[in-house]
Each structure stands twice: as structure tokens, then as C-alpha cells.
Amino acid sequence: MIDAALASFCVEREPLAPYTWYRLGGPARVLANATSAEQLAAVLAWAGREGLPVYPLGAGANVLVSDDGVDGVVVRLAGGEFHDVHWLADGAVAGGGVDVGKLALRAVRRGLAGLECMAGIPGTVGGCVRMNAGGRFGEIGDVVRRVWTVDRSGCRREWERRELGFGYRCSALGDHIVERVEFVLTPTDSEALRARYDGIWAAKTSSQPLGTGSAGCVFKNPPGDSAGRLIDRAGCKGLAYGGARVSPVHANFIVASGGAAAADVLRLIAIVRKRVREQCGVELELEVKLWGDDGDVAEVGPLLETGASH
Ligand code: EPU
Predict the structure, then answer these.
(1) Mean pLDDT by 10 residues, the chain (310 residues)
(2) What is the CA radius of gyration of the chain?
(3) Cα 216 to ligand 1 centre (Å)
């Protein structure tokens, strides 16, 4: 049971589906909507005392929650200082809960270059920095100068760029929750920058099913190749299981329709993985984070195989 202090920003048995881009999944034991560093520290300390796992939730754009939900504390940076942005002559300091797409557009309007590669990538500053989100136009880690975090025991830390260990969809931030980030941006002619932003946005919208029930690319690109190309080559484009379907627009997206369950998406993930393994000899690794009990999608039974359809 949460106490009165936590009850001002925490809810028990809160359904998580509305907080994710998939719109799927069951409830969190506790959902914390923190709007200050004090609230964040208080809920982390409480979760530690109760022995409950903590799940940091950004925009919910890269997560698939199990139909059973999660038996832990889901933490959102829901407002207040976590949504603040301070502009600098050559950059910005943004809270971990700031929407990265909106931040990128504001930077473009100010003639500050560096974040336009994030056009069309949904997520919060914290979530995107932690996983070094990006694509072929660039990665967010390229423009990060400094990060402030709090860990699961409530300890705060400042990270310099050289400590952040950015790689393909990863960083050294691990379990730390991002409170705010300083970006280094380059003052640039704003018309040319706007044209570049619009070009990236157009490339995204023409090749990806943006805005539908999905969590972006499901699998990481294997070294030197594209997961979307491999899934396409393995004949999975349009493949469906229950209410989940491999997008006909981009094969590395699995889209969920209104009646879908998280289990449908999980099963389709397993089927796609198996087909790509058999036909291309490549073991695809998940980019989407799975939360909850259904996390093991390594094996697919014959039943699942026959259940899939084009
Ligand atoms: N392709 C196919 N069939 C498909 C999809 C792609 O043949 O169904 C081919 C394309 O023709 C192209 C190649 O695969 O030759 C690469 O495709 P694309 O340019 O769409 O890029 P990607 O590698 O699939 C990456 C990121 C995206 C990011 C884009 C653009 C990963 C896993 N994906 O996609 O990120 O938006 O570059 O910058 O790194 C995400 O992280 O959720 C995500 C969507």
C-alpha cells in the first residue's frame, strides 16, 4: 500500500495501455507521475524498501506491456521540472520527460542544428538518450554534452559526454533515470535547417507507418544489414497473427489493430524471428522493450506457426 505522501502522485492498479503507443497491455501495480526530483526520489526509495522493480516509462513509444501488466512501479516524468527546456546560444537543457520530436522542431525554428535527425521518432528526452535513439539521419547521442540522472537508490549523478558510452541503440546509463540532458547544437541558417528537417520528416512518413498502433522498429538492425529488409526478404510483410500484423509499409514495424492483445504481437514477433532465422540465417535482436511475464519470445510452437496468416 502506498502512503499519503505518495498517493498525491501515484495510482495503484493503473492500466498502462493508454500510456503506450501500442495501446496494449495490463495495469501497473503502481504508476508514479513524478513532477519533481523530490517525488522521484521518494517513490524510488519506497520501491526499494518494498523490493519492487522499477520501470521507467517515457512516451511509451518503444515498449510492449504484457496483457498481465507489470508487478512493479512504473515511473513517468509527468511534468514540472521534467518538462522544462532552457535554451542556450549553442544548445539546450531539457528535462527527461520532454517530447523529443517537439524539442527538435523548436530547435529547428530557433536555427539550432543537431536534433533534426529525431524528426518522426517518438519518445521523451530521457528514453531517447538512454537508448541512443536515431536512424540513418543521425543519433541523439551525437549531440549530448551532459546528463543528470538519479539511480534506483535515489543517488544523483552528473555524467560527462565521455562517460556516456553511446553505441548503436545503447548507452552506459543502464538503470539510471534521466532527470535532464544538455544538448550541444549548432547555430545555422534556419531556412536551410527547416528544409533539412522537412526532408527527414518526408522520408520517414513515406517509408514508415507512423502514428498507428506500433512501437517503431521492433528489431535492431544486425551489423551491416537492415532488419526490415531481412523480414521483407523472408516473406513476412503483411503476415498477421490475431490483431497484430507486420506492416505492409515497413517490415520492421508490427502494427496492432483495435482488438489486438499484447500476446498477439509477442507471438508474431516470435514467428518473424523464426522465419528470418530459417531463411536468412540471422538471429534478430529485439529493439522494443518487453515488460511483464510474457517476456520470453525465443521459442515458437507449431500451433503459433499455423495460426499466422497473410
Ligand atoms: N527495406 C525493405 N523492406 C522493408 C523495409 C526496409 O527492403 O519493409 C529496406 C529499405 O529499402 C532500405 C533498407 O531496408 O534499403 C533500410 O530501411 P530504412 O531506410 O527504412 O531504415 P531502417 O534501417 O529500417 C532505421 C531505424 C529507424 C529509423 C530509420 C530512418 C533501426 C532498427 N531502425 O530503419 O528507427 O527511423 O533508420 O532513420 O535502427 C526505430 O528505432 O524505432 C526506428 C524506426
Answers:
(1) 91 97 97 96 94 95 96 97 97 98 96 96 96 95 97 92 96 96 96 96 92 90 97 97 97 94 97 98 96 57 44
(2) 20
(3) 10
